[in-house]
Amino acid sequence: ASAGVQGVADVQSPFGGVIPTSLFCLVTPHSGDRVTHVMRKINAPFLAFEEGALGCSAMSKGEGRFVAHQMLVGQATEQGVIDLQSDGANSIYAALDEGHTFFKSLSIPAWCKRWDGDVVRHNTRTGGPILLRGKRAAMCVSVQEQVFKKIMKRHGEDLLTSGFMPRTLFAMPPSLQGLRNSYAMSAGLPMQEQEFSRRLRALLSK
Questions:
Q1: Measured between alpha carbons, how far is 139 from 22 in angstroms, rounded to an integer?
Q2: Least packed by Cβ within 10 Å: which of 66, 89, 125, 181?
Q3: What does the alpha-carbon distance between residue 82 and residue 107 come to, in Å, rounded to a whole number?
């Protein structure tokens, strides 16, 4: 939901300053909890946005018309994200159900710089200085509990000192293996899913 809102509005902090609505979320489910199935449903409005089926949010350079852009970021490098944002993507969303690739390929310290909506500064020997203003990035990464423990064992100190851990909301749900909702509990779910999807589409169309 924060990924859908971040391209529309910022919020006034009670402690002063304006900050994005962007959130960094990390979930550590267990094998068999059907995370891929859930992520596919949540990501459907973002895929529709990328395909230009919802209206558009990013102004193309100097042409005065609106164009859709890639919003979902999977396995990516820092340079790949910079290229995407330089090309007009004002709002991106890292949504991975196999989140170990996020930690392997992306520069975590550089990703954390996007948390507060500050200017992204990037310099390369061949490309020179790049300044990106008004860019927003949200994240929802799923990493199986055992895999995340290994990541923490190897890179825990770096994740802490880079600011990734303090900026991230963690969900560590109990295993749902072997459990299924009763009809009484699940009867209203399709309607709730439709309303959630409808609201995301409405936000993204802006």
A1: 8
A2: 125
A3: 11
